Amino acid sequence: MTKVLLIDDNAAILTFMAARLKSENVETLTADNGADGLRIAREHYPDVVVLDLMMPKMHGYTLIQEIRNDTNLSKVKILVISAKTYTADLERTIRLGADRYLSKPFDLQVFWKTIADPSGRNQITFLTFRFWGVRGSIATPGPDTVKYGGNTACTEVRCGEQLLILDAGTGIRQLGLSLLHEFKQKPINAHIFCRAHSLGSYSGIPFCTSFHPREMNLQFTACTVRKNHSKSIQGTDG
């Protein structure tokens, strides 16, 4: 690899990525919007293009299509970096022609390893976390408290295609709405881990719209300090 083009409208991220590549003696080109990125790609023929999705002047999806439709850029490897972590976004970028997808924020060493292996021969499985609720036992949702975290505990964890849900407090309602948007009519497979003696850990389940009625494969695990017990529920939830 001799040349990498970085395209991102976030100046700080652009600077960090460029510094990391230059430390490996990689020729680095940069652009802060999609239109300039496409122009530079057509002028300099980089080996790898790293691009964000949400950018001014040209969206990342359009940029991927433009690169793939240009016969002079047919051998360019495309790495997408984005804070959008929905499976649907990842699948769309791959379908349009991207080679790899890296979720923001990311470790620069992981970034370098991904650049060094743009085709994914040594595929890395990434963990992503999203907090839908962080309070204790009592929820206080609403416009006056949402900025402090009004919902009780619920954390979404993604590991490859695996979906894990840590606690099912009132934050799980917003998670459920997000899953409905992401999976649409597809089945949802998930593992839910709750603290058995904490009301705030499971009080949101009745309000999670994605659970009823819905084709799902759920495994619930309830834990206590001294012992663990679990119950699996599979098939259609009703």
Number of helices: 6
Q: Percentage of helical residues?
A: 25-40%
Low-confidence stretches: 227-238
For the sheet with most strands, the description reads: 7 strands, mixed
Query: Into which percentage range does the β-strand content fall?
Result: 25-35%
What is the H-and-E element order?
A: EHEHEHEHEHEEEHEEEE
Annotation, overall tally of beta strands: 12
Distance between the termini: 54 Å
Mean pLDDT: 80
> What Rg, in angstroms, do the CA atoms define?
21 Å
Estimate the global geometry from the Cα principal axes: elongated
Structural class, by secondary structure, is alpha/beta
Care to give the gist of this entry?
This protein has 6 helices and 12 strands. The protein is an alpha/beta fold. Strand 8 (162-166), helix 6 (172-183) and strand 9 form a beta-alpha-beta unit.
Would you mind describing this structure in some detail?
Strands 6, 7, 8, 9, 10, 11 and 12 form a seven-stranded mixed β-sheet that branches. With 238 residues, the chain is of the alpha/beta class. It has six helices and twelve strands.
